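Appendix B, record 7
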Amino acid sequence: MCGIVGALSKNAQKIVLEGLSRLEYRGYDSAGLAVQSENGTVHTRKATGKLAALRAEIEQNPLPAAALAIGHTRWATHGSATTVNAHPHSSHGPAPKVTVVHNGIIENYEELKAELKAEGYTFVSETDTETLPCLLSWALAQGQSEAEALALLTTRCRGNYAVLAVVEGAKGTRLLATRRGAPLCLGLGKGGENFVASDPLALASVTDKFVYLEDNDTVVITPEKTEVRDASGTPVTRPVQVLNLADDMAGKQGYKHFMLKEMMEQPAVAARILEAYTKDGEVQLPLTAAHAAAPAITIVACGTAYYAGMVGGYMLEELAEVPTQADVASEMRYRKKPYPKGGLMIVVSQSGETADTLAALEHAKAAGQTIIALTNVTTSSIARAAHVVIDLMAGREVAVASTKAFLAMVLVLQLVALKLAALNGQQNAATVASHLKDIHLLPMHLMNILAEAPKWEPIAEKLASAKNPTHSMLYLARGMLTPLAYEGALKMKEITYIHAEGYASGEMKHGPIALVDETLPVVNIAASNDGLFEKTISNLKEVEARHGQIILIVDEEGAKQLSYPSPTPQIPGSYPAPTHPYLIITPSVPRLLLPYTHLLPLQFLAYQTAVFKGTDVDQPRNLAKSVTVE
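Structure tokens (predicted):
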């Protein structure tokens, strides 16, 4: 997704452009650069498309020599992918002019925009970002110092963000920066150079010394020093980390845990997959008519990958209309399974080294099945053994509890389904293009959901309560969302050590309902447009009638139809009445995007509960990232 790079150096423009190129893996749709010339004037260049377009724009309209530059790659959220909406953004109104690049979302930008318009500022873009330079300009115009203006920004802006700013005409060469929720690090240079970026990889060619800013830190950066202040305005010294960036995903990049970092990367993962595998309304995957002619498909995987495979099975049957079955790899070899002639097996493994999955692959391959491997490591054993390899492109995943790889697996499986559907004639070109148009909005939806995550912490705090500990949980869903119930329960078990089980909602009355009482949290996963909403809510009512403690994940339209009082009460340590469940509301999206939008709350519910409990989030007991034994 979006990337930020800033440099104070005689080679500032070159360093920033090179840094942006290192962040291209995140996915983006526009880019921009601003420099401050020797007389203090700020000059900006922007372009839609790839960095090559920005370089061409700069070549055609050269920038003056400058020892300060800031740059940005943008994936559109607020406002479409246009030059006007591309960063950097500058204030238009009273002096001083401030220019900003920004990652994240300013939730209350409409409120701020109205206030700033009343102060004489005008707006030219559709973005939330444009409020930031105006707010900083206003604060400076009131006589506040640069540090005070940054502190005001942190108190007035709601949401997750990383901000880098330059003030036109400022005395001396300096950059201003702050962050909350989105990563930002300082790169320490030598001999009158300093840098800043959203990812240290961007600065790998100029420094190996980094300082990660914490939430609500503010910093004034000059060529000679960096002045960091914490949320109270107190000067602080953050530790310097020397990083070996040979592995570009090795660090936490300012996040508390790898798992949190990897959850926050999911919009970028989706963007990267779509950039790689779709073009001009078509799916670009190495699949042929022979693959599409398979009479049946088997998806084989373990754990999280198995649940992703189950979701993929629904999509393959619906879109490509090929009978599909997801099998647990550890069991598949021991069944007398008749493989159909010309059958297709899709094996799914993040590491590509999962022993059970590899063994199942070899078993099926010996039986004449064509093997397609979906893996995050294209040099792995599974990749080498398969006939076709598709890179999940999730980037290195360090946390044992898989998050971004699950999303990548489901998304790639959906693209496989669309490709096979186009090849076997079950979906025409227009229909495939329509599906892809919807899917290309996924990164935006994911970013909006991530911005809501802090609101769910009271639920997690209750689940983690030592006074009234949670010993067991149920997760319920129907249809294509049923595997999410399994995955949500798995995440809760993995990192919180709370016993949790996922069930198809219709199966609850066949046994699990015996567990329901006023002490049992029950996570219900529902969507107004999945064709099963009324049945799902009927099952929810069965839980209500037995005073189960309901946590309802539902889309906006579904929440409106249910007419529960709003909002969710923010009362740590207590549940609302059974007729007023905890609500986690997701965006209303096309039906085939529901597995993604309902996934993130399940991941965060487990993560936040684990944090409150104090368990080892990244390395939970008894678990390993790559399971290489059967």
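Remarks on this record: The two ends are 37 Å apart (CA to CA). Confidence is low (pLDDT under 50) at residues 566-578.
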